[in-house]
Amino acid sequence: MIFTYNKEYVGDVLMIIAADNQGAKLTAERKGNVARVYREDNGQTVAWNIFQVSNRMNIEGCGQVYLTDEQVAVLNQELTEAGFAAELINDHEPKFVVGEILEMVAHPDSDHLNICQVQVAADKTVQIVAGAPNAKVGLKTIVALPGAMMPKGNLIFPGELRGEKSFGMMCSPRELQLPNAPQKRGIIELGSSEIVGEAFDPAKHWQA
């Protein structure tokens, strides 16, 4: 669940991204100040738009924003009052975390991609297909997990690269728009003492 808000350029509308549309054709239905965006082929809800949201709550920030449980409860009340039988669930899990490459093998259908097994929590390892030239077993880096929004606005969802499943992205300083980021390919290289699963903190994890 990704919340985005940009009153100056988009208007007083909170956009809630609930799922990857996977390129499917979309349609929408609006009731009052709530619009549901869904796939035409299977009816899956992929997004909600809450118009005039500042009448219900004060939202700080621009771009991706993070709401309290109390604010999400207000949004659920808005959906109910509009006649939608749905419930938004607030996700408190960090989407940018320290990860460690545990295994890496060459992609069978690529001369530059690798299939990596990346530990992203004490009890969780995910597969990520990556083409970073500096990727290697044992390297700790910053991982964008499904549900993350990158600084340029692109979203991270589970997907496939040349037939191999991928559940996130290992990030370069440039992709995270970090200050004085090198303008070249290559994921962030963290020290071996960094803790896997820890939420990304630019002040701690980045030194130009």
UniProtKB/TrEMBL annotation:
Kindly give the SUPFAM superfamilies that the UniProt entry links to this protein: Nucleic acid-binding proteins
Q: Mind telling me which InterPro entries this protein's record contains? A: DUF4479, NA-bd_OB-fold, tRNA-bd_dom, tRNA_bind_bactPheRS, YtpR-like_sf
Annotated TRNA-binding domain ranges read: 90-201
Q: Which domain of life is it from?
A: Bacteria
Record key words, sorted: Aminoacyl-tRNA synthetase, Ligase, RNA-binding, tRNA-binding
Q: Does the keyword Ligase apply?
A: yes
Sorted alphabetically, which Pfam families does this protein's record hold? DUF4479, tRNA_bind
Q: Name one GO molecular function term.
A: aminoacyl-tRNA ligase activity
Q: Which CDD domains match?
A: tRNA_bind_bactPheRS (cd02796)
Question: What is this protein's name?
Answer: Phenylalanyl-tRNA synthetase domain protein (Bsu YtpR)
Source organism per entry reads Streptococcus sinensis
